[in-house]
Write a structure and sequence with these properties.
The complex is a heterodimer of chains A (112) and B (115).
Chain A: E1 4-6, E2 9-13, E3 18-24, E4 29-37, E5 43-50, E6 55-58, E7 61-66, E8 71-76, E9 85-93, E10 101-102, E11 106-111
Parallel strand pairs in A: 2-11
Antiparallel strand pairs in A: 1-3, 3-8, 4-5, 4-9, 6-7, 7-8, 9-10, 9-11
Chain B: E1 5-7, E2 10-13, E3 19-24, E4 31-37, E5 43-50, E6 53-56, E7 65-68, E8 75-79, E9 88-95, E10 105-106, E11 110-114
The chains are: A mainly beta (112), B mainly beta (115).
């Protein structure tokens, strides 16, 4: 099975908040990341959180980390149509150098 | 500053043929990574170069895949002979040595279709 899991699809109305969830299995995670992929583009790093933090806020983005449940979430406030994309969560692990371990991505659709 | 570039953006080949993908990392980045996403699944790590040396090639699927980084600048990933299951998007990323969180910057990817 996958080490990092995400739901496949999320649809929200413009102006609402979006919450994209991710679960991981390995307790040796060091950093956890959120990447965004727009159509035809590469992966853009949105934000990251160190594993000893619980929360990180960056403008419209809020990352919450629950280490006990191995659950990571990305909240996008006031979601805009330009936020429509695929969002990948990823982790690096203490025993795996710096390679990123990705989830399968959540496709966010923002309806006008 | 130019980002990570990849060539070609798309490649369509027949089973049994050879394809070579190229990645130019951000100038000065010693770390170079290859990843791929197959059939809408998760993005999987293939290998990691530090300069011209292979640091970790644990994700390479089999010996039909050969990655090189001569001179420690650009890298190539050759698939020979290509099989149907090799279809997917191949991403390259680079990062600076010594960056504690190793922020990886990704290229746009090469979409490979094997018919």
């Amino acid at each position: 099975g996958e080490d990092v899991e995400q739901s496949l699809f999320l649809s929200v109305r413009e102006g609402d908040s979006s919450v994209i969830n991710c679960t991981y299995t390995d307790s040796s995670s060091t950093y956890l990341y959120w990447y965004k992929q727009e159509p035809g583009a590469g992966l853009q790093l949105l934000t990251y959180i160190f594993s000893n933090m619980d929360m990180k806020q960056d403008q419209r983005l809020t990352v919450l980390l629950n280490k006990k449940d191995k659950h990571l979430s990305l909240r996008i406030a006031d979601t805009q149509t330009g936020d429509s994309a695929i969002y990948f969560c990823a982790e690096t692990r203490r025993d795996s150098s710096y390679k990123l371990i990705f989830g399968s991505g959540t496709r966010l659709l923002v309806r006008p | 500053e130019a980002g990570v570039t990849q060539f070609p953006s798309h490649s369509v080949i027949e089973k049994g043929q050879t394809v070579t993908l190229r990645c130019d990392p951000i100038s000065g980045h010693d770390n170079l990574y290859w990843y791929r996403r197959v059939m809408g699944k998760e993005i999987k790590f293939l290998l990691h170069f530090v300069k011209e040396s292979k640091q970790d090639e644990s994700g390479m699927p089999n010996n039909r895949f050969l990655a090189e980084r001569t001179g420690g600048t650009y890298s190539t990933l050759k698939v020979q002979p290509a099989e149907l299951e090799d279809s997917g998007v191949y991403f390259c990323a680079s990062s600076q040595q010594g960056d504690d969180k190793d922020t990886q910057y990704f290229g746009p990817g090469t979409r490979l279709t094997v018919l």
